[in-house]
Amino acid sequence: AGFNKLESTVDDVWQVDDDTPAAMGKFHITGKNDKGDAVDASGTWTAVYVKVDGKWKARMLTASPIPPKKD
To answer: Are strands 38-52 and 2-17 parallel, antiparallel or unpaired?
Structure first.
């Protein structure tokens, strides 16, 4: 069980303030759930970063999957 592939893009980056950049993009993941069934999901992610001890760290990361299509 778990994800075996993650693809992501960075589509936009902007400055929230002098020390806080943010970014957003798209993701696609594949793998298997705990029952062994295939998982294939895509969606949008956003992140906000802060500088801690001179290094950029993700302070908040949000991922929103696209709901599956109904038959």
So the answer is: unpaired
- Taking the C-alpha atoms of residue 53 and residue 40, their distance in angstroms, rounded to an integer, is 37
Structure tokens at 4: 């075996």
**Residue 29 near residue 3, CB atoms below 8 Å:** yes
Residue 5 corresponds to which amino acid? K
Cβ-Cβ contacts under 8 Å for 50 (sequence gap 6 or more): 19, 20, 56, 57, 59
Tell me the C-alpha distance between 6 and 31, whole Å.
Answer: 9
pLDDT in tens, 22-57: 999 999 999 999 999 999 999 999 999 999 898 999
C-alpha torsion angle, residues 27, 29, 34, 36 (rounded to 10): 150
